[in-house]
Amino acid sequence: MLFQLNEEQLMIRQAARDFAQTELKPGVIERDEHQKFPAEQVKKLGELGFLGMMVSEKYNGSGLDALSYVLVMEELSKVDASASVVVSVNNSLVCFGLEAYGSDFQKEKYLKPLAAGEKIGAFCLSEPEAGSDATSQQTTAEDKGDHYLLNGTKNWITNGGTASTYLVIAQTDKSLRHKGINAFIVEKGMEGFTVGPKENKMGIRGSDTHSLMFNDVKVPKENRIGENGFGFKFAMKTLEGGRIGIAAQALGIAAGAYELALDYAKQRKAFGKPIAEHQAIAFKLADMATHIEAARLLVYKAAWLKDQGQPYTLAGSMAKLYASKVAMEVTVEAVQIHGGYGFVKEYHVERLMRDAKITQIYEGTSEIQKMVISREIIR
Ligand code: CAA
User: Fold this and answer.
1) Model pTM?
2) Could you count the other beta carbons within 10 Å of the beta carbon of residue 58?
3) Is residue 197 in a domain?
4) 142: domain range?
5) Acyl-CoA dehydrogenase/oxidase N-terminal domain location, by residue (predicted)?
């Protein structure tokens, strides 16, 4: 494994770093405060090709590798995790799923505008009664010949209000359990499809999280993804890549908080010298830097395996489990290093601490990652 990024990867990382500083940082505190979706910024991310990074150019994507994608996720997340989650969901959960498993018709009609950033996608698996236990879907899709009739509720859907294209997982035959699940493409505006109010969240407050209600929504048969009964595997395969993106988000949140804490510790003086020169703070910084570097290696390795066409289920879950734990620990320490300033919004670290928590919850909780990891190593 090469521990060196190539020219293209370095350029892409720099572009994301610049974008984060010039476009995301200026309004990030206000967007968090007012739960404002970063609409203009997301539009620009689309123009830069960051919303369809790994999609082939044939379908309007940027045709880049997974390592470039995690570099972008890391840089954007250092500054604004509410914006980076849009990038993650659109790339990993929506575009990847459509390119890997969609029909030619679906790729032409739905993938192209999503990869170009002209439209935003959402991935709809979680339900009021089915979060971690994803086989227990209550949303149903009844086969009516030329269409399916979709009924049910989805919860915690990222991009729920702003998306135009929704990948919805539903039961078509309860008796078959996971083999009776399918994935469907649902468009905003289809009759019977309503978006619930925006959730008032602890972190990633700028991101757009909603419940979705489906009441006798007619979904054309050509909008089912893959063979009949493929929906659960579709969700699992898609989430595998998604977990690498969220691991990179967690890494970025940790690195962003660490960089702020390091700068602050070098400038802030107490007892006659910069606090970074007090061992109590210096040792904290040493731990933070070491844990972040370990998380980075896991995240990059998972992306690298994906790029090599090798299995990445285990590596992706390990990366997400560890990076999200590091994000939580490092952001708490960053607040501590800032003292009272860490507790107020202008210094950014309290927001990063709140944002870090979701990385241990969405796209599979830490407990789910341990389930996946233990099954992989025991099997
Ligand atoms: N790839 C391919 N197939 C897989 C798979 C994978 N990674 N994981 C499981 N499967 C297959 C199994 O092989 C099995 O198929 P067969 O019977 O044909 O062999 C089938 O799926 C069922 O597998 P399990 O018996 O392992 O299923 P389970 O009920 O024990 O659940 C689980 C496994 C890993 C816990 C899974 O339910 C899971 O990942 N749950 C968490 C769901 C999740 O991540 N939710 C987050 C919501 S999305 C989100 O947060 C998006 C957002 O907005 C940000």
Assistant:
1) 0.97
2) 12
3) yes
4) 122-231
5) 6-118
